[in-house]
Amino acid sequence: MVSLPYTSSDLSFTRSLAKVELHAHLNGSVRRSTLASLALAQGLSPDAIIASSQILPGDTRSTSAQFSVFHLAHKCIRGAEVVRRVTREILEDWSEDGVVYAEMRTTPRAHEEVGLSVEGYVQAVLDGFRDHQEGSASSSSSCHARLILSIDRRDGAEVAERTVNLALRHRSQGVIGIDLSGDPTLGQWSNWEPALRRARSEGLKVTIHAGEVPDADEETSQILSFHPDRLGHVCYLSPSNAKKLEETQPKIPLELCLTSNLLVCPQIVPEYSAHHFAKHYAQEHPVALCTDDTAVFGSSLSQEYAIAMQAFGFSREETKRIARDALQASFLDRNDPLWAELERVVGQEMTM
Ligand code: 6MZ
User: Fold this and answer.
1) 87, 75, 161: which is closest to 123 by C-alpha?
2) Which range, of 49-58, 72-81, 115-124, 281-290, averages the lowest pLDDT?
3) Which tens digit of pLDDT belongs to each residue from 314-339?
4) What is 156-195 written as a DSSP string?
5) Under CATH, what is the fold of the domain 8-351?
6) ipTM value of the model?
7) Ligand 1 lined by 121 (C-beta under 6 Å)
8) Ligand 1 atom closest to the CA of 182, numbered from 1
């Protein structure tokens, strides 16, 4: 288990804050006890699966080898009922942690051996959202969710187009955008750009993982020229790309994940206080603090907020503002009735 640097009083405070999660991958956020029981049901060793499905401090594997942790979750999470269950549980856990609104993302995949199509996969996730809403109807807290469909960098243009079509077909049920993610050493921007342009022209929001590895300056420059609605990570930014990011108008909000970046990009984030969140925040660039993969990195959103308080010396008032800033960066339609409700509560302390 990672030892996270925060104080317990900061953590009680950040847990009580109504927060917004904008960057979290479904299969990286599965409750560990559930992953263990699913592993057992598949005839796999639960202990081995749990131990190998985390990225821990001191992990010196290559980026591609680190990304193999996700294959283990993919191996255990099979079939519509399981996808639906883990989705509901993730929302329950986030709600427990004070997350009142989340934009969950996932890569649509068919589970052919159990007859689940990509369409069925997306529907199972949306059913999990509905189960959580219905299950929490009588309780004071629930995590409202919207869905972003991810294009995996392993996949080419055809899958990217199919993902955009899926998003468009499920829009009325809460799919709001498209993400580009996956092993950052794979694929090339030109594969996905046409589909991403079409997504945008059809009114979907687009968020892109960028700068997770060194030597991707040209691709990052192309992504900046595309002007996505949000960017994830941006750990490695050459001076010219940093300038381009700052000069791009309107500014592109950044989804920043402290523990994930510390563990995956230790060369550029050797300690929490060196994380680029502080620099962008000081420059008043729009930022949202996020978790990425709560199960893989062993850190919840309230822990990430408490770490930020400790690492950057944020006061409670500043920390409340960070939660409100995340809401401003969300893809939620400002005319959605939920928007007014969230504006009222996000950044406030809740009684839990
Ligand atoms: C890039 C990431 C990621 O889609 O199966 N994923 N992509 N950078 C990261 N930072 C560490 N963390 C997760 O969730 C798991 C998938 O999300 C992407 C990878 O493609 C991973 O296989 P879903 O729900």
Assistant:
1) 87
2) 49-58
3) 999 999 999 999 999 999 999 999 99
4) -HHHHHHHHHHHHHTGGGTEEEEEEES-TTS--HHHHHHH
5) TIM Barrel (3.20.20)
6) 0.99
7) no
8) 20
